[in-house]
Design goal:
This protein is 31% helix and 22% strand. By secondary structure, the chain is α/β, with parallel strands linked by helices. The longest helix is centred in the middle third of the chain and has 16 residues, at 240-255. This is Glycosyltransferase 2-like domain-containing protein. It comes from Sphingobacterium mizutaii NBRC 14946 = DSM 11724.
Amino acid sequence: MKNDIPSLSDCSLIVGLRNNLAYTQAFYKAIREQYPAVEIVMVSYGSTDGTHEWLEGLNDPHVKFHYENVSKSLSETYNKGVELASSKLVTYVHNDMILGEGFIEALIEAWEPGSVTFYSLVEPPIFTDDSFDWKTVMDFGDNLENFKQEEFSEYVRNQKISAKKPFVTEDHSFFLCVERSWLLEMGGLDETFSPMFCEDLDLIMRFSIQDASLIQVPGAIAYHFVSKTSRFSQEYKEESKKIDQLAINNFYRKWRFHPFAKFRKAYDVVAVVENATTDGVFKIEPFVHKIYIDSSVEDYISKYQKTTKINLRNRVFSINQMAYHDVVIYLDQEKMKEDDFKQIQRLSDIISKNQVKNGNPLKRLFKDYRKISIGNIAGKINKFRSFEDKFSAIAINY
C-alpha cells in the first residue's frame, strides 16, 4: 500500500481561458457541485466577452485568477496558472470540459512520486480518426445545450465499476496531473511553442528523459466538448493548420525527430544543399540538425526567423563552412520531388532502423547500412550516435 496518498486539498486545477464564458461558467459550476473546496486557478489572456469581469465577481476563497488584456501563448497561460497554484499537485484542464464523479480522487490515488498521471476523456464523434489510451468517442452532446448530463454521469459510474486499473502508457497527452514543484523546476511548458500545439509533447519528452512513470488512469474521466477555444474554434479556423505545422517544425528543431516518431532518436544529421532557394531551404532546415547551403544565409534568416524563437543562425550556414557531422545527406534542390522532402522528415526513424540492422553481422554482409540512398537523397552515416538523453529537461522560456 502506498503511503502518504495526497488528499483533495493537495490538487489544484489549472485552466486557461480565452472567451467562451458560457463554457467557463458551466465548467466552474460542475466542479463546485462536486468539489466545493478544491483550488481552481484560472488564467485569461485576451478574453473580450466578459470573462474578466466574471472572474472579478467570483466570491470564492478557493479560486485564484489572473487576467490581462493581451494575447499570450498556451504555454504562458498554463505556466502562470502553475505559478499561482498552492497545492502539491497540479492538473491541466480545459474550460470546455465537465469532470466526472471521482475525477480528482482517481488521479491522486494513482499518483506517486516520480510519476505523471493522465486522465481519460470522452469526446463526441467529431474527430474519430485517431485512437489513444486516453480517448473514448461517445456522444453525450457536442455543446452545452444538448449535453446529456445524466447519461454521462451514469457512464462514469459504470466505468468506475468496470474500468481497468491505472497502467503504464505511451499515449501521452496534455491532460495530466503532476507534482507542482517538479513542473516548476522544469520551467513548465516551453514557450518555444507559440501560440500553441506541441508544447504538451515537448513536456512529455522532458519528463521521459528524467525516467518519469507515465500512468493512464481510466477511472479519472472528463467529458470534452472538443476544443471550443482552441485549434478548431472559429478564431483559429483558417490559421490552425499553419500554426500546427510551425509547432511541428519547432519540435523537430528542438528534438530532431517527429513528435510521433517510432524511435525518438536525436541524431547529428546535417544537409548539404546545392542549387538552394530560400523557400526550398524552409522545406529542409527544420528537419535536420544543421543545414549548409550555396544560397544566401542572410536571405533565409531574414524571411524565416519570424517563424521561430529558435536562433536560425545556429542552424543555417554557408556550404563552405561545412564541418564534421555524424550523418551527412547531400541534396540537389533542383532534382528534389515532394516525396524527397517527406523522406527528410523521416530521417531519424530511417537511421534508427539502419542502426538496428547494422548491429546484425549477417545483415551487414549483404548491405551497407551506413549508406543512405532514398529517392534523390544520398548520404553517409559516419557514426550511429543519438543525443536525446543528453538534452535538457528545462524549458526554454523567453
